[in-house]
Design a protein that fits this description.
alpha+beta, two-stranded antiparallel sheet, 8 strands, 25% helix
């Protein structure tokens, strides 16, 4: 999924592609769209959902709850979303 070194996996490739497309759209004066990108990393292990953006010693022992909202759809309650403005912010 993530890969190592020069052998990047699908996640880094997808993130890089998102920002390449955003950069390309900014160069086109006919496209009047504002982009916002937020990063969230979740792990499902032993049927428990954990937020990988939170230090391990502060994560809830029983994991986070998956909920459903009538307009938002399925979401993870309490998951953190960090705004990012470039691939480099994700890659480090």
């Amino acid at each position: 999924m993530t890969g190592y070194g020069e052998n990047k996996g699908i996640l880094p490739r997808a993130c890089a592609d998102i920002f390449q497309r955003i950069d390309k759209s900014k160069l086109d004066p006919t496209i009047k769209v504002e982009h916002t990108v937020e990063l969230s990393m979740l792990e499902i292990y032993n049927e428990k959902v954990h937020d990988l953006m939170v230090p391990p010693n502060t994560r809830p022992k029983d994991g986070l709850q998956v909920r459903q909202h009538p307009t938002k759809g399925v979401y993870v309650e309490g998951a953190l979303f960090n705004p990012v403005s470039s691939y480099e912010e994700i890659d480090h």
